[in-house]
């Protein structure tokens, strides 16, 4: 089984060629740096919180942690956005929130990430503080002020409203649209 089959799960997809050409046109070296990633998505000049969020997204997509996103990492990221099952996406969100990588999310981490995301996508149905309090109230079953991966996934999957809010707030389809269209415009 080749790399394409293992990433898509259903054999080489026709859009892989499109993504490969797009990736190589935007990034002839085959290695997308954080600076190029921001440029591709027209996300330069963000405030420090926005920059922190984009760096976290980049670091999570950079699976081998070499400081670059190569084509296979790029496809894995797109595949997660398009075809990822909800528990895969929740694991990805958890990694995004867990800024210090200790395997738990505390209120400060969740608040920082949510504030940064709002700065980028402008989604403002709730304040970062309200969002953070609501997540912890619904998901932190042992009330220790931290969420484990298991608590997070179980809690979010059980609560349709929370699932919908997290899905809308952290929707990466805007990023995907920019990548697909090849146009550089604000998202």
Automatic annotation (TrEMBL):
It comes from Ciccaba nigrolineata. Residues 49-84, 85-120, 127-162 form the EF-hand domain. PROSITE patterns: EF_HAND_1, EF_HAND_2. This is GUC1C protein. It holds the Pfam family EF-hand_7. GO terms for cellular component: photoreceptor outer segment. PANTHER family: CALCIUM BINDING PROTEINS, GUANYLYL CYCLASE-ACTIVATING PROTEIN 3. The keyword Transcription regulation does not apply. Keywords: Calcium, Lipoprotein, Metal-binding, Myristate, Repeat. It comes from the Eukaryota. GO terms for molecular function: calcium ion binding; calcium sensitive guanylate cyclase activator activity. Gene3D superfamilies: EF-hand (1.10.238.10). InterPro entries: EF-hand-dom_pair (IPR011992), EF_Hand_1_Ca_BS (IPR018247), EF_hand_dom (IPR002048), Recoverin (IPR028846). The gene is Guca1c.
